[in-house]
Backbone:
């Protein structure tokens, strides 16, 4: 899942070297914490959160095979 998030986010940002993805796993969910450069936050979130919503939609669609754990994405 980390590779999918990287493949989506890296082309969007101007500072790809500052993209950091941390993973926290709990009983019923996995949370990915995405940290980007301050100038790139708007590019990852998009107007009215459209890009962030699209990224989350792709992650949920990719997770259909492993339905026992829900995937969340936090953009910091």
Residues:
């Amino acid at each position: 899942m980390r590779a999918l998030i990287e493949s989506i986010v890296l082309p969007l940002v101007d500072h790809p070297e500052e993209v950091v993805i941390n993973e926290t796993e709990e009983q019923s969910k996995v949370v990915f914490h995405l940290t980007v450069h301050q100038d790139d936050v708007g590019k990852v979130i998009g107007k009215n959160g459209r890009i962030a919503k699209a990224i989350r939609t792709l992650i949920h669609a990719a997770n259909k095979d492993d339905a026992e754990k829900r995937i969340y994405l936090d953009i910091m």
